[in-house]
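S1.2 Input.
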Amino acid sequence: MKIARSLKISRKQLAAHKMRTALALLGIVIGVSSVIIMVSVGQGAEKQILSRIEAMGTNLIIVNAGQVKRTAGRQQVRGTVTTLTLEDAAALNGECPSVRSAAPVQSGKLPVKYESLTTNTTITGTTADILTIRKLKVARGAFFGEEENVGSRRVAVLGLTVVQNLFERSGPIGETIRIGKIPFEVIGVLEAKGSDLNGVDQDDQIWIPINTALRRLFNVAYVNTINIEAMSKGKMAFAQQQVREVLRERHWLNKKDEADDFTIQNQTDLIDAQRETAEAFTVLIASIAGISLLVGGIGILAIMLMAIKERTNEIGLRRAVGASRKDILVQFLLEAAVLSLGGGIVGIGTGLAGSLVTAAVTRLETSVSPASIALAFTFSLAVGIFFGVFPARKASLLDPITALRTE
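S1.3 Output.
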């Protein structure tokens, strides 16, 4: 009964000072909504990164020529980059039981022309296995096969961005484009893939047979990378070890202290690294947003101290008619809790709306989880009570006689 009566008194007191109450609520509302919006942006970025990694292919392992290092978030190749060959890819296909398929890849930027239109795009030479390894789908036409590769046929499959850049009106299937000075027949168009982890447009490239790329365009006998699909996720580690052993043997790296002249990256490691980075980013921005909650708590502290000063006579009167110090303490703690509770509820609604607006107005993907809402609400309530303890205790310790004499 005492709690119910104290709540009734708290509501009356807060309603009697609408402007002051609104300002106190505003601080909590801003804090809670900021936490929800920031966490939703962080979690959305994490989901987007992980979906892009998964879209790269299933059970994917990538072997790069040379030593690959990450500098400023981007991959850079160091050392010799001529160590991987078509024979290496064939050996991995035939000698590694845990490998389902392996596709050699050689790529580079070249000018491409169709009639009067010209664009610079990435030319990627590979085999038909790349379709299943990298989850590529043909939207129109067909992809080249082993026959086109063996015959070094001049055929090309276009990404959607290339189609948009070169073919404004007509369809590309059956048309002839020039890569450098060499004519190629367009036989297919791939479905859109979007940007990769580095923000590079995966649709801004042209796929051609690997033998055609090496002999007719790049004039080299080596490849940049070999894309590999493991038999299953559980065999990723076995496949990676088998790939390393086969390549070291083929490259005559027999001594244990000899460094690999290639770099192996698997999808699991990439997902774990990106998830850790995204989670750290989410914690960071949530912590920054949490500062605004502390500011809201300080606002509650200031308003509660003002309320105590104004109601000193009332506190003395309640003590004189039998209210205990505990009753006074509970009274003011309840007022602080009501403020933070109300601000938390409004803040949740504002945060949800803000997340939707952020996703609609910007290109950022947002993802609101029940855990982030519960965290923000709990933290707001804790902040309100924490900053309400000092003024509540101060009110409970007032001497009744001195309080009654206060004007």
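S1.4 Remarks. Confidence is low (pLDDT under 50) at residues 70-74.
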